[in-house]
Amino acid sequence: MANQSGEEAFDHDVVVVGGGPAGCAAGVFTARYGLETEIFDRGRSSIQQCAHLENYLGFPGGIDVATFGDLIHDQAESAGCAIVPDLVESVERADDDGFLVEPQTGEPVTARRVIAATRYGGEYLRGLDDEDAMFETHEYDGETEEYFDKQYAESDGTTPVDGLFIASPYAETSPQAIMAAGHGARVGVAVVEAVRREQGYPDSVADYYDWVRPESERTGEWSDRDRWREFFENRFPDDHELSPNRVAEIREREIDRRFDMYISEEEAERRATAGQRRLLDHIDDDLVVEAAREIEAEREESAATDD
Fold first, then answer.
1. Gap between the Cα atoms of 3 and 57, Å rounded
2. Which among 61, 155, 174, 298 would be 20 to 30 A from 250, CA to CA?
3. In contact, 126 and 136? CB cutoff 8 Å
4. How far is CA 205 from CA 234, 240, 303, in A?
5. How far, in Å, CA of 27 to CA of 82, rounded?
6. For the segment 118-136, what is each residue's pLDDT rounded down to a tens digit?
7. Which long-range contacts (CB under 8 A, 24 or more apart) does 126-132 make?
8. What's the pLDDT tens digit per position in 132-174?
9. What CA–CA distance (Å, rounded) separates 161 from 50?
10. What pLDDT score does 8 carry?
11. Which terms are listed as keywords in the entry (predicted)?
């Protein structure tokens, strides 16, 4: 199977260990960029300890954890992730500098990069760092206990182990689901930017964001492809070592990506309707029917009043 750069080297570009808010958020960004992403989720995310999620933006009445889990998995799969309901036993270095991911029941897979996104522990990562620096010891009641060091990773998830990113556990992320998702997204973007650098993108061009904008905003000089060419030409440092052909390839690819970010008003309306319909898939059918009856009754009452 080919990885994102087209080389027959790994089963996946990215393997995410953990399918909670952090893991799914990271997977959405890597998969949307085109990186083949697989998420291992044992079904026991720490969010299962929550009786009802009440402070996650977008759900004014709160949301039950089961429905929330279905939603984030649905979005990750819609972005292109494959979700495997299995526990990862170990992650080891592969011979070709990638990783060998060993699940509890399924077949092992290889990946160029691994994102650790399990809130509790990191025993499955043991041995990846020659100095075992990712673990720290604590004395408790006369006993010595060892824990994953939450300060092992940088704020963007990068670690001293090439290709290993930590979305969780992380020192600056509290148990709040929304914070875990935000940090997972940051780590997903960091993975994408690492890939872009490996593809030859200079730091000044490797930064990445993922959004769409109304086509009506693409006006004036920024609707001119030559203006974008000038913009990117100026962003390449003078001391880069890329060939002119490679510079042109990167520049044109990025201009295409910028142009693809703009969508028409009709397309925005289509996506809005499709997005709301997708939410209905996760609402209890009886509640949908009940709401439909209430809406119909209100319409009939309004019509009678108008008459």
1. 35
2. 155
3. no
4. 10, 12, 58
5. 9
6. 987 789 999 898 777 888 8
7. 126/90, 127/90, 127/92, 128/91, 128/92, 128/93, 128/161, 128/164, 129/159, 129/160, 129/161
8. 788 888 887 778 888 888 889 999 999 999 999 999 888 777 7
9. 33
10. 56
11. Flavoprotein, Oxidoreductase
Residue with tokens 């522990």: 121
In this prediction, residues 18-47 reach a mean pLDDT of 92
Single-letter residue type at 89? E
Rounded to an integer, the average pLDDT of 205-233 is 92
d(CA 64, CA 2): 39
- Report the DSSP beta bridge partners of residue 263: 214
Per-residue burial over 164-183, b = 16 or more CB atoms within 10 Å of its CB, e = otherwise: bbbbbbbeebeeebeebbeb
Q: Are strands 99-103 and 109-117 parallel, antiparallel or unpaired?
A: antiparallel
- Give the per-residue pLDDT at 307: 64
Query: Band of the pLDDT at 302, cuts 50, 70, 90?
Result: confident
Cα gap 209→187, rounded to integer Å: 12
4's tokens? 């994102």
Instruction: Detail the DSSP E strand segments found in 205-292.
Output: 213-214, 262-263
Residue 138 has, within 13 A of its CA and on its CB side, a CA count of: 7
**pTM summary value:** 0.91
Q: State how far the Cα of 107 lies from the Cα of 265, in Å rounded to an integer.
A: 46
Cα separation, 277 vs 272, whole angstroms: 9
